[in-house]
Amino acid sequence: MKSVFLILLISSFLTRASADDCCAAPVAGVAATGTEKEIETAPARHPLKGVVLDVLAEKSALLVKHEEIPGVMKAMTMLLKVDAETLKSDAAKKGAAITGQLVRKTDGWWLESSVIAK
Ligand SMILES: [Cu+2]
């Protein structure tokens, strides 16, 4: 019983740690003063290059392995929310090499204007 609790504790910690890796240190100004309101009024857009590893239609999201985005994120694999139109497009296919705009919104990271990389 005790070990089950410990595993839960560790896994929740790990989940948090990886989320922090991804989302804690974006633009300096946002990190320093970040309220949700500020992020909402001025969503920065960051060019992203990556490969679609999976399509999670039920979550309206793509699992994307993206290159480093200087000053925003190291190279990593993460879930990115996309709109319904993108979800139906060629950019939402497993193995597709894509480019797009990474945008941080109050509900998480979005990939916008995503197209097949040329
Ligand atoms: Cu990322």
Task: Write up this protein.
Helix content is 33%, strand content 36%. The longest helix has 22 residues. It contains four helices and five strands; from the N terminus they run αααβββαββ. It has a single domain, classed as OB fold (Dihydrolipoamide Acetyltransferase, E2P), CATH 2.40.50.320. With 118 residues, it is α+β, with helices and mostly antiparallel strands. Strands 3-2-1-4-5 form a five-stranded antiparallel sheet.
> What is the total number of structural domains?
1
SS class: alpha+beta
Can you tell me the CATH architecture?
A: Beta Barrel
Bound molecules: copper (II) ion
Strand order of the largest sheet: 3-2-1-4-5
Alpha-carbon Rg, integer: 16 Å
Write the CATH fold name: OB fold (Dihydrolipoamide Acetyltransferase, E2P)
**What is the distance, rounded to the nearest whole angstrom, between the alpha carbons of the first and last residues?**
54 Å
Protein name: Copper-binding protein
Organism: Rariglobus hedericola
Keywords: Signal
Signal peptide: 1-19
Reconstruct the topology from this structure.
Blueprint: H1 2-23, H2 28-33, H3 36-41, E1 45-56, E2 61-66, E3 76-81, H4 84-88, E4 97-105, E5 108-116
Antiparallel strand pairs: 1-2, 1-4, 2-3, 4-5
This protein binds copper (II) ion (CU).
Short description:
The chain is α+β, with helices and mostly antiparallel strands and 118 residues long. 33% of the residues lie in helices and 36% in strands.
What characteristics describe this protein?
5 strands, OB fold (Dihydrolipoamide Acetyltransferase, E2P), signal, 118 residues, Copper-binding protein, globular, five-stranded antiparallel sheet, CusF_sf, alpha+beta, binds copper (II) ion
